[in-house]
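Hi support team,

I'm filing this because I wasn't sure whether my run with acetoacetyl-coenzyme A finished correctly. The job status page said complete, but I'd like someone to confirm that the output block is well-formed before I use it downstream. Pasting the exact inputs I used:
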Amino acid sequence: MQTISRLGVVGCGLMGSGIAEVAALGGLDVLVAEGSPEAVRSGRRRVEASLDRGVRRGKITEAARDAAVARLAYTDDLDGMADRQFVIEAVAENREVKTGVFAALDRVVTDPEAVLATNTSSLPVIDLAVSTQRPAQVIGLHFFNPVPVQALVEVIPALTTSPDTVLRTRAFVSEHLGKEIVQASDRSGFVVNALLVPFLLSAVRMVDSGSARAEDIDRGMELGCAHPMGPLRLLDLIGLDTAQAVAESMYEEYKEPLYAPPALLRRMVAAGRLGRKTGQGFYDYTA
Ligand code: CAA
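And here is everything the job wrote out:
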């Protein structure tokens, strides 16, 4: 089996930057692609700020940070992915955008054995697989936020994914990224979001109906069930736009009212109150 040393990460937002950071710390040569020079600059800042924070908090040494920075390269041109052996797509949770990235990667990546993975939370992996000429090498690889902290990665073979791709992906995740694996079938939400999203949306409905305040709902779950953060703080961390997109895909798949994005979530997204990343969501982060 070919050793994987050259990773591509497409998208350097919250998830892509975390994946790139973990992979570079794991010793991989990582090329990160973003859509524009400005997006490349902010993606790079995000990765480097997180590595610096790791040094400040005593998680990694300065030498480890410097080595990781040296293993990371950035581009605004997907053609740069040509020599990659494994590529993880982590762009916005939007079917058209992701399909476009997979079709482009299929044209560009020269190694016929390369694995093309998607970090989708809820879209069918098969839709991305069939947008390429190599559906046997396309697989779901779902990370959790913050990527450097959360130990889990869900591995999701599509109907077309070969057993060899699954084996190589599992080995790659545990050996190079040091993450634990849960394998799930290609059903919207996989294991974790299928359980988590209805819980988060129920908390939004509780705020909307006026039956409890956001602070009390969060305190309830933090102190009553030992969750590290309550559901509304967690929505602010995930991003309300991402949560809405995930809920929409899950609702489309199951037609189950529990997955339907509540009106308050939609209104907050429309207002640009997306959570931490915009400074306001269920809580204010501007201070
Ligand atoms: N990078 C690296 N380390 C980080 C970090 C980051 N971005 N954020 C926090 N940490 C580390 C800190 O260094 C700290 O480590 P130590 O305790 O060893 O010093 C630890 O995590 C705790 O951090 P803080 O003290 O700053 O803050 P906290 O105790 O409030 O923890 C949290 C923050 C890690 C986010 C924690 O609240 C948590 O785990 N929350 C739940 C997150 C969760 O459920 N994520 C899944 C979301 S669902 C998803 O991602 C999937 C999807 O498809 C939507």
